[in-house]
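USER: I would love a firmer grasp of how sequence relates to backbone shape in proteins. This is the protein in question:
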Amino acid sequence: MGRVHESIGDLNKLVCLNLGDCGSLKNIPDSICRLSSLEKLVLRSCWSLEELPEEIGRLTSLKVLQLSQGYMQRLLESVGLLTNLQELEISNCADEDHPRHFRFASPATF
């Protein structure tokens, strides 16, 4: 899959979005940040994905974010705004400009 359609943001009851192994996926539309019920976002092995949407912190129901094995150029500090995040996986990422520290709203284990 090369891209995700903007209309994905209309799926307001979507709980899990697994885009893992989408090697040609370059970006994710900003509309994904409207998925108010989303609890799990899997972006493993998305080798072409360059960055997450700026407003990723608006996914307040998100509990699991998996970004392992990719070449994302930038991981936004707004990830720290994910108030219900319980699991963050960013292993084996060829990072260029990831923040060294995140400030999370609620304590959890990462």
Q: What stands out?
A: The CA atoms of residues 75 and 98 lie 5 Å apart.
